[in-house]
Amino acid sequence: MKLSDFDFDLPERLIATRPAVPRTSARLLVAEGDAITDAVVSELTDFLRPGDRLVLNDTRVIPARLNGLRHRVSAQGATQAKIEVTLLEPRADGTWATLIKPLKKLKPGEEVIFSADLRATLQGVEDGQGHLAFNLSGDDFDAALNAAGAMPLPPYIAAKRPADVQDLTDYQTVFARNKGAVAAPTASLHFDEALLQRIAGHGVDFTHVTLHVGAGTFLPVKVDDVTTHKMHAEWGQVSAAAAAGIAATKSAGGRVIPVGTTALRLIETAARNGEITAWEGDTDIFIYPGFRFRVTDALMTNFHLPKSTLMMLVSALMGQDTVRRIYDHAIGREYRFFSYGDASLLVPE
To answer: What is the mean pLDDT of residues 10-32?
Structure first.
């Protein structure tokens, strides 16, 4: 398999920079085997069966993008530099791994001031990431970050417009609970409370799992032989109750349908030994054609970037030829793509 096998031409006008309003008004492409139906997310219950189970990723996105100033006094006098920081993950020593732009403007030991309450000192640099020690921790840090930070929009949106107050709501699921993600599980952005209640009333069960989506989800694949690509690791947890619920649905003949590729990758990680069990840790599972799915029966997901690992994942589920037809249909009907775009429900034969 070559990287070019997962490429396609996407008109830039189809890249969504804002979500549909209301959330459930987004379009929904339903692919069941070779059949394709055009629908709307609010009609999702038309395609679900009593006894199905939706698996939802309840991670909560933190406002991980910070803009600050570095002050320096040298022989040439006082200078300052604008510094942009994207938080990646907390480290065992209490610092944060971050992306810093421009990294060359900051030296170890120097401080960046983000607000009257929040500042950080660069402790060191490793593998292109800056390790920052903040002046606050715990609830005080969370409060200061919420006040000073912005949502870490994907690069293809951030290149078109800056994050704003509306993104604090738009880029968060209605069932977000466990903070730690720096990117949203975007297929879940299409749900509101009313739709969740209708789905439950239809006889569909829900399972919540947690995978903290990392910024590495946007990293491009740089190898031509895709089987040699190394995935970024992300922390996740499948509780014993979640595993039991999924196993019960499988046993009863219901379908297990993860909402989003993050939920799918997590439950397939927890089922690597053949049956799903409770699991916690860092997963770097890479799903591409030839992968054997243990628990996933269908997938709700958005439309993905050309040559991305997520294109490889949906191709593994549906087959490469079928995915090409799905994407040709979506482009021809002008579905909106990527994180704030429309959705698909993929049901393999």
So the answer is: 97
Strand partners, 285: none
CA dist., res. 323 & res. 336, Å (int): 16
- For residue 183, the 8-state DSSP code is S
Half-sphere exposure of 286 (CA within 13 A, CB side): 12
Burial 53-82 (b: 16+ CB within 10 A, else e): bbbbbbbbbbbbbbbbebeeeeeeeeeeee
Which helix (H) or strand (E) segment holds residue 209: the answer is: strand 205-211
Q: Which residues contact 162 (CB under 8 A, 6 or more apart)?
A: 150
Q: How far apart are CA 143 and CA 147, in angstroms?
A: 6
d(CA 299, CA 311): 13
What is the DSSP track for 238-294? Answer: E-HHHHHHHHHHHHHTPPEEEBSHHHHHHHHHHTTTSS---EEEEE-----TT---S
Beta bridge partners of 149: none
Quote the CA–CA distance of 146 and 86 in Å, as a whole number.
14
Per-state percent for the chain, helix, strand, coil, to nearest 5: 30, 30, 40
Average pLDDT for the chain: 96
Residues with Cβ within 8 Å of 332's Cβ and at least 6 positions away in sequence, in order, are none
Residue carrying structure tokens 């297990």 = 256
Contact call for residues 314 and 298 (beta carbons, < 8 A): no
What is the distance between the alpha carbons of residues 321 and 326, in angstroms, rounded to a whole number? Answer: 9
Say which residue the tokens 């947890």 belong to. 237
Distance CA 316, CA 305 (A): 16
Structure tokens at 39: 């629908």
pTM exceeds 0.85, yes or no: yes
Task: Give yes or no for residue 1 having a pLDDT over 90.
Answer: no
Radius of gyration of the chain (CA): 21
Compute how many other C-beta atoms are within 10 angstroms of the C-beta atom of residue 265. Answer: 26
Structure tokens that stand for 331 in this block: 């482009």
The pLDDT value recorded for residue 74 is: 79
The backbone torsions φ and ψ at residue 124, rounded to the nearest 5 degrees and listed phi first, read 175, 175
Of the candidates 61, 12, 304, the one whose C-alpha atom is nearest the C-alpha of residue 159 is 12
